[in-house]
Design a protein that fits this description.
Layout (H helix, E strand, L loop, with lengths): L1 H9 L3 H8 L5 H23 L1 H9 L5 H19 L3 H8 L2 H12 L4 H5 L1 H18 L9 H27 L3 H20 L11 H28 L2 H7 L3 H12 L6 H18 L2 E3 L2 E3 L2
Antiparallel strand pairs: 1-2
Helix pairs in contact: 1-12, 3-11, 3-12, 5-10, 5-11, 6-10, 7-10, 7-13, 9-15, 11-12
Length: about 290
């Protein structure tokens, strides 16, 4: 479970980093530069570590176009959805992604149905989901709008993208790092056009901020995305995405430390439900190829 913990910790940072970078870059511009940085780092890494596999994937590049486009649509709709929504509404609706992942996994991945039927998993899901929602909604009741519809649609796209990637990794039998390098480079091409008018911001932004922008792309997109692919294969899409609910609590702590945001009693109570919920999700949950012991 060490790799899952690393992913949880890594994907708890994007909200904090993106909020800081938003003072200098628009969300769409951030998306392009972060994905471009991830693709460059990963392609260089794969060129030296797995040159033969890299050549094989270049010949099969057409297989990566659909998931890269799904990822691009997800990122774009989610960003615009946040722009048209209140922060607490966006946070609440983003948690619905796990429900879409469960539904799509049930339809497309028969080997994960035993996980979804598992009593320990069901108990953990309700506890963790309730806790994550309590943390998110502690600052007000959500209001629904056009932005809400965009976020819900982006959640569905994330679920389809996730299940598609698990099936693709199984079919092509390539490393997660190799897959992520091609996904990010194609996705960055799609992201170039919405961001084209504001790319020059990079030239007038402090070097330290640009450094954070590109490093966040490498770690939070490239490295973490590769680890996410690995876990999709190792423990399944259902468990991985439900365990990621824990990022709500970790992000809460990071926001308190780095952004000096306050923590309410409802957020504390949400954490009390969320942590044991994730424990039940992982505890003796049946997955393809074995069992996870928390």
């Amino acid at each position: 479970m060490g790799m899952l913990f690393i992913l949880l910790l890594t994907w708890s940072f994007p909200s904090v980093v993106i909020k800081y970078l938003s003072y200098f870059f628009s969300p769409l511009t951030q998306n392009f530069y972060r994905y471009l940085a991830a693709s460059v780092f990963l392609i260089i890494f794969n060129y030296f570590s797995s040159p033969q596999e890299l050549k094989l994937c270049i010949r099969k590049i057409r297989y990566f176009i659909i998931p890269a486009f799904l990822l691009f649509l997800y990122q774009t709709l989610f960003v615009y959805g946040i722009g048209f929504s209140q922060a607490n509404t966006a946070g609440f609706l983003s948690k619905l992604a796990v429900i879409f992942v469960i539904l799509v996994a049930w339809i497309e991945l028969p080997d994960e149905r035993s996980t979804i039927r598992n009593k320990s998993f069901i108990t953990g899901f309700f506890l963790a989901f309730t806790g994550a929602v309590m943390i998110t909604l502690s600052k007000g009741t959500p209001s629904f709008s056009l932005g809400s519809s965009l976020i819900i649609l982006s959640n569905l796209l994330w679920a389809i993208y996730t299940i598609h990637m698990k099936k693709l990794l199984r079919e092509l039998r390539i490393s997660p790092v190799m897959a992520m390098s091609f996904i990010t480079i194609i996705a960055s091409i799609f992201m170039f056009f919405p961001a084209i008018n504001k790319l020059s911001r990079l030239c007038i932004t402090p070097v330290s901020v640009n450094f954070l922008l590109f490093i966040s792309g490498f770690f939070l997109v490239g490295a973490a995305g590769s680890l996410y692919y690995f876990l999709l294969n190792k423990i399944g899409a259902t468990i991985t995405n439900n365990a990621l609910l824990l990022t709500s609590f970790i992000t809460l702590g990071l926001s308190f430390i780095f952004l000096k945001e306050s923590i309410s009693i409802w957020q504390v109570l949400g954490g009390i439900l969320l942590i044991p919920g994730c424990y039940f999700i992982l505890r003796k949950t049946q997955i393809p190829g074995g069992e996870i012991q928390a």
